Amino acid sequence: MDELSERYGELLTGSYDCVDRIVLNAYVSLCYSPGGFRTWWRRLHDGSEEQLDNTHLMRMAGRFSRRVRAFATAHEIPVIDCRRGERKHLIAEEYLATHSVGPGVFLILVARATAPVWEVSRSAGGVIGNLAKKKAFVNHYSFHIMDPEWGHLTIKLSGHPPFGAQIILNGHEWVACQAQAAGIGFAKEGNCFTRMADPAALARVADTLSQPATIGRLRQVCERWIYTGCL
Q1: How far is the C-alpha of 33 from the C-alpha of 118, rounded, in Å?
Q2: How far apart are alpha carbons 104 and 207 in whole angstroms?
């Protein structure tokens, strides 16, 4: 028993052990080496590298931005451009506190952060001399999603090639969704369960998140949204 639980043991009706924040890095491995990225580009442009330059890479990022905003407009999803230092998870929590949302993307937050990008150097004759990966401040698009099994999750996607992503999930949200589906009564504020009708049953639900089968659940939730809600 941890020190806090031991000190307040007489006031507690139960306890559970749960994974808190889960962050998965997602990327296309082919696009993270110079040769692999050139192969990816040729596949995208009918075998040609004629347009593989910094200008066209920037244009690709611009098209990505326009498509995200067009998608949001078509589905009446708010897009908020965040200022430096704003706590984006609080923006999402405030939105959820005042809006009822169903499954799918309900909010898109845009903010600048560092990410790997490609820089192309060509000779005077137009031959690619070097393809270098560097870190730069670029726009990232945080797709806030309501999932029936995981609750509120975020997929943060870089708007520049090679389009790295992070999938951010909350174990407490998963426990709450599973408990609700199982008919286990509870009250919850943020990550804290303030009331449990059956603490032992809630603890059993939380324990399943530490089992090997969770790998499959994580794969399913990533594939459920990254190819539909984001791309």
Answers
A1: 10
A2: 27
The pTM for the full model equals 0.90
Q: Are 186 and 163 in contact (CB under 8 A)?
A: no
Q: How confident is the model over 16-61, as pLDDT tens digits?
A: 888 889 999 999 999 999 999 999 999 999 999 999 999 999 999 9
Please work out, in degrees rounded to the nearest 5, the angle formed at the alpha carbon of residue 220 by the alpha carbons of 216 and 226. Answer: 140
Helices (H), the chain: 3-7, 34-44, 54-74, 88-98, 171-181, 199-208, 214-225
Are 106 and 99 in contact by the 8 Å Cβ rule? The answer is yes
153 and 177 Cβ atoms separated by less than 8 Å: no
The answer to whether the CB of 57 falls within 8 A of the CB of 120 is yes
Return the HEC string of 113-171. EEEEEEEEEECCCCCEEEEEEEEEEEEEEEEEEEECCCEEEEEEEECCCCCCEEEEEEH
Beta-sheet pairing, 186-189 with 192-196: antiparallel
Q: How far apart are CA 189 and CA 192, in angstroms?
A: 5
- Residue 59: CA count within 13 A, CB half-sphere: 6
With H, G, I as helix, E, B as strand and everything else as coil, classify residue 32: helix
Q: What is the pLDDT of residues 85-119, one digit of tens each?
A: 888 889 999 999 999 999 999 999 999 999 999 99
